[in-house]
Every structure is written in C-alpha cells, then in structure tokens.
Description:
Order of helices and strands: EEEHEEHEEEHEHEHEHHEEEHHH
Shape: globular
CATH superfamily: Ribokinase
Strand content: 15-25%
Helix content: 25-40%
Number of helices: 10
Largest sheet: 8 strands, mixed
Radius of gyration: 18 Å
Number of strands: 14
Distance between the termini: 29 Å
Amino acid sequence: MNDVLVVGDVNVDIITSKFKIEKKKQQKVENIFATKGGEAFNFACAGSKLGMKIKFIGKIGNDGFGEFLIKKAGEFGINKPIQTKGKTGVSISLTQDDRKFITFRGENENLKMGDIKLEDIKNSKFFYLGGIWHLKSLQKDIPDLFKRARKFTTTILNIGFDYEGEKQILKKILPHVDIFFLNHEELKQIRFSIKQILDMGVKIIVLHKGNKGSELITKNKRYYSDAAAKEKKVRNPTGAGDIFNAGFVYCLLNEWDFEKSLKFANACGAIHVIKEKDFVPSYTEVLRFGGF
C-alpha cells in the first residue's frame, strides 16, 4: 500500500539567487543552479524524504535533463518517471521580490489518463495532483480522474500558478477534491470565494501565506499558524509550497491535529526557503528546526 499516489509535472528547475532587475543588457546574479522541479515531483521527493511511501506518475524525455531527474528520483527513493522519446520540461525561476518563471513544458504536456492505473489509485491512502496547468493532454480528463479516485482514497489538488487562464475546469474538479492547497494570489486568480469552494464539496482548504504563515479552513472552523522563520533571510522560495504540502500530508497520514500539522508544514517550507540551494528536510531536521 502506498501512502500517496502523486500525479503531475516533473521538470528541471534552473534557479537564480535573489536579484534586482537593472536596465542593462546583461544581468548578473550571485548564483544559479539546476535541480529537480515540478509541483508534483517536488512533493513526491519531499514526501519520501519525510518517510512516506510514494508512487510517482509523470513524464520526462530521453535527454540529459531526463537522466538528471532519474538520478534525483533514485536519490530520494522514489520510482523513476515515465521516460519517452520527447524532451524533458524545463523551468527557469528568476528570484526577485516576487518570482517569475520561464517554462518549457516538454513531456508534461503528454501525460495521459492511460498512464494512471486504477490499481495504483486503489492501492494508495492519498491521491495528489500537482502542476495541473502543465498537463495539457490530461486536463480534460482530470475531473473524471478525481471523481474516480475519490471512491477509493482521499483526493488532494495543488492548484499552482495559472499560466493559461483555463479556470473554468476547476468548477468540474473541485466537487471531487477533499483537500485543496493554494496561496492568496492563486485564490485571487481563480475568483472563487472560500465559501464557494467549500460549497462545491472541498472539505479542507489550506492557504500558504508566505511570511504570514498558513491557514486551514473547513466549513466549521479556521486554524492559523505563524511562519516558522519570520526573521530569516529568504534565499530560495521556489518549491517551498510543495515541501509545505508534503509536510502537511505527512501529518494527516499520522493523524496529527490541524494546529500541529500546520506548524510542522510551516517548518518544512521555512527550512527550504532559508537555504541557498534546493534543500529538502528530513523528519528529524524538521523537528529540530521547529522546536517540536
């Protein structure tokens, strides 16, 4: 039995250190590095590092970037993505006061319903989908995928950034979602109120609030947790939300209460953002950092 079946995007992230834009033809930064990326793949790696048993379904190409990601999957103890003859997705993250992305979707566009086996869904305690806007071929089938998955497991959607403006599909997906992860900017983009989302059938909304912490909302109650590293310098915010999500799902899996779960998840994300490179914490490192 898998703890989480993770479906969605996987790519190489090329990330700059934080910089201010200058009116020059050549922009210099202090550091730039390549690492694993994709909302779904980041979650899968972070979840496995915390100790969850993960099954990952995503597509990469037959190229150097694909081989790089296969190696990363091995390092984190998860199965390798589906490898095809196409090209691997790449995302360039420009780290400023707010992040900007340049993204080539690659084989993420070609992930299909047929790649996701019903037996894998049945054999998982949670079903998690990330990178919805990159999954061009799968998008039209996602409502049915969630409807099918919810018969057997707890369903989770991470909304991520909306590049296409195709928000109407959410009206078809959200009635089949148990847990919905997003941040305040994404909440503005989808133009649904908290009440509307809950009325559609979502049981739990988890809002990332950056240096203001996080918030969990159900129909009956709201829970809040302060940020775990308010006074620390933010070095690498890319992927922090995915690591937060993994921490929160880990807590649900172990039946922690919501307040403690938010605190633990905040600590997971905070450790990541204060590190220069792509740092993914273990359970012990989170406990030590968060003062549990």
